Backbone:
């Protein structure tokens, strides 16, 4: 139904859109469609498919709104064929509401009261703009409810003002004036200057809306919401009134003067407030979209951070007075041991703590140490790096963002019912090193600490975008069926929370899955869900070698035919490159199987189960920089990108305060998007530009001559 409209808007072929919509209607997920239905969609990627899905849902909402509007107008007995056609041809939500406005049930407005007094005929006479003798004409409308000529004219003007407000062209004119020249104004509410100090940049602020970046607009709206700022959006009134007058006032008669007065009143009393609300909502929506894009980009990078892989890890959640919670994990992240050490003030048990770490590393054959990047992180890192271990141990600093949220959550209590929040937090730090994706899916993305003003945007839109991002990342990497947690399985294409629990329960009762097709024995996991999820679930060392690849079970027969044609086994195609080179891919093209799928299959045979994430690397802060007071302008320091916003990037340089690289200091040329230059957790070299010790602010610049572009 909507394929033609969507294809035109998104500049895609109509068949691509139609097939994608069909798949979505059938319950297919975005990851499944983009990976396994390339022939149907014409090789559309996840972004294209998500755009189609979003537009399809909006058009569906508009279609439902049309039904309501048509029913309401029809009940009034004023639905003409022309009006029905006009509504039917409109797919712009704003335009639709403009058409509906004159028929929308109203409260008792000034115009409604004037009509009840019988003044509509007078309004019609004035709108003809032919009469000069208004007193004689208006006198005919004097009654008990209209005591004099001025009240008669006022009532007529009220009717005209409402007609102007409901006129589609008038609203377009004012909307256009707002779009071209509206200015956002922000002023502090008198008497709240001290309380609102954090919003001081917006105490007396103005800027054209079209140039106002999302972070500034969201900051002002937050100040308004908290009761500190008064924010308005308006263009120059004279421009709007002149354009409206030019459209509605056609003569120089006395009645035309009355129309001009009504137009002025209509703008100031009705149109300006109405279109301001629209402009405020539109600008906020635009800012929210930008903020969500930033959050999504950061979250994606964070979820796809390089994993250490299956290594035995000692994780430390650093602290001063309460000590450092230390846990030992096996290669799959299972907790083996936990205890506290007290190397820092006020205990200062440095030597004993060092010996304890050395003992634990030796006893549990630890291969890597993960240190949380919060309080006492640098001191703990120094302690660990001064220990001479008997074997090579890699040392990493790991972001703690959201770890406290996880440790107090229901998820953590279910995993570690016998341990307190400190143990759970330390375990989370260690597991983040092993596999960031598997651990971070347990935490509400809003609590992970990346993005800008995520708490000020539409909750539903944010959740939808973040869930879609998590789902995309999980399915891109793939999930080990026999070890994945319920929380990770939840995001596998087509699964969801209940089936994820059913999979875990089945695994607990029946042991490991030896083949993907065993999934069909899981309660309530039917054929459709199996189709959606199977290709994204991996089984290492199972009966079927293809089960450890992204080859979908529906395509196994193709690989088996390839192997048979070469008198080989499927395992030979995976393990022997010389045999794969003999495959003539064109032999296997059919009506349903095309080159996109066949090329994907060959890629998987080359590297089955390949993790698309990069390799993690160790990092070391400058050893002589531990506090903001140690900084000097001009210093060149190593750092890690911790957050990216529209206005720049925050970098951890090891002093507990992240420095800001403003967007203007990212390159020697104009940068429109910091994500085009940097990525989350990237190791960079930065130059200190300015240090404000009192406000704890550090301004940095990207050191363009010495950048490690790898994570």
Residues:
């Amino acid at each position: 139904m909507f394929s033609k409209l969507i294809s035109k808007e998104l500049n895609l072929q109509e068949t691509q859109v139609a097939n994608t919509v069909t798949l979505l209607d059938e319950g297919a997920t975005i990851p499944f469609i983009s990976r396994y239905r390339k022939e149907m969609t014409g090789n559309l990627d996840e972004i294209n498919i998500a755009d189609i899905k979003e537009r399809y849902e909006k058009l569906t909402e508009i279609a439902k709104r049309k039904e309501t509007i048509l029913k309401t107008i029809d009940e009034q007995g004023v639905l003409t064929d022309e009006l029905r056609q006009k509504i039917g041809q409109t797919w712009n939500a704003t335009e639709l509401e403009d058409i509906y406005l004159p028929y929308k049930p109203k409260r008792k407005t000034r115009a409604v009261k004037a009509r009840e007094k019988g003044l509509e005929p007078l309004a019609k006479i004035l709108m003809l703009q032919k009469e000069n003798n208004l007193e004689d004409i208006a006198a005919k409308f004097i009654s008990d409810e209209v005591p004099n000529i001025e009240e008669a004219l006022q009532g007529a003007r009220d009717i005209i003002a409402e007609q102007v407000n409901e006129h589609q062209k008038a609203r377009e004119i004012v909307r256009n004036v707002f779009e071209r020249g509206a200015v956002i104004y922000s002023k502090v509410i008198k008497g709240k200057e001290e309380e609102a100090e954090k919003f001081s940049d917006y105490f007396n602020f103005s800027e054209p809306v079209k140039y106002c970046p999302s972070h500034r607009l969201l900051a002002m709206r937050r100040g308004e919401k908290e009761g500190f700022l008064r924010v308005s959006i308006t263009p120059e009134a004279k421009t709007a009134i002149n354009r409206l007058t030019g459209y509605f006032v056609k003569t120089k008669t006395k009645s035309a003067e009355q129309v001009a007065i009504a137009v002025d009143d209509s703008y100031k009393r009705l149109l300006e407030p109405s279109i301001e609300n629209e402009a405020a909502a539109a600008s906020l929506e635009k800012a929210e979209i930008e903020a969500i894009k930033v959050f999504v980009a950061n979250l994606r990078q964070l979820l796809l951070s390089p994993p250490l892989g299956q290594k035995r890890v000692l994780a430390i959640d650093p602290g001063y007075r309460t000590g450092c919670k230390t846990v030992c994990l096996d290669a799959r992240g299972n907790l083996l041991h936990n205890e506290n050490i007290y190397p820092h003030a006020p205990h200062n048990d440095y030597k004993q703590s060092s010996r304890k770490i050395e003992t634990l590393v030796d006893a549990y054959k630890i291969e890597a140490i993960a240190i949380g990047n919060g309080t006492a992180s640098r001191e703990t890192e120094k302690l660990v790096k001064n220990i001479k271990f008997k074997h090579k141990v890699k040392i990493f600093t790991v972001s703690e963002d959201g770890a406290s949220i996880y440790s107090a959550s229901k998820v953590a209590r279910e995993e570690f019912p016998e341990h307190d929040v400190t143990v759970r937090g330390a375990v989370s730090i260690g597991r983040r090193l092993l596999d960031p994706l598997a651990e971070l899916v347990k935490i509400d993305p809003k609590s992970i600490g990346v993005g800008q003003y995520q708490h000020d945007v539409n909750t539903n839109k944010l959740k939808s975008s973040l869930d879609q991002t998590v789902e995309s990342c999980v399915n891109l990497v793939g999930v080990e069926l026999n070890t994945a947690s319920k929380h990770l399985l939840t995001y596998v294409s087509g699964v969801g929370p209940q089936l994820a629990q059913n999979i875990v329960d089945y695994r607990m009762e029946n042991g490991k899955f030896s083949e993907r097709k065993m999934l069909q024995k899981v309660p309530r996991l039917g054929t459709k869900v199996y189709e959606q999820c199977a290709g994204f679930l991996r089984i290492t060392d199972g009966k079927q070698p293809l089960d450890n690849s992204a080859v979908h079970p529906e395509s196994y027969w193709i690989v088996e035919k390839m192997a048979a044609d070469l008198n080989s086994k499927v395992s030979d195609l995976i393990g022997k490159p010389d045999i794969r080179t003999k495959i003539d891919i064109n032999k296997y093209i059919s009506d349903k199987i095309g080159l996109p799928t066949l090329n994907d299959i060959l890629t998987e045979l080359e590297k089955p189960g390949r993790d698309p994430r990069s390799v993690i690397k160790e990092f070391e802060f400058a050893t002589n920089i531990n506090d903001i007071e140690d900084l000097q302008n001009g210093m060149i320091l190593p750092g890690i990108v911790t957050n990216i916003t529209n206005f720049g990037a925050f970098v951890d340089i090891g002093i507990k305060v992240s420095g800001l690289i403003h967007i203007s200091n990212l390159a020697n040329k104009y940068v429109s998007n910091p994500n085009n230059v940097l990525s989350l957790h990237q190791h960079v070299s930065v130059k200190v530009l300015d240090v404000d010790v009192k406000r704890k602010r550090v301004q940095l610049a990207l050191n363009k001559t010495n950048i490690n572009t790898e994570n």
About this structure: The longest strand covers residues 636-645.
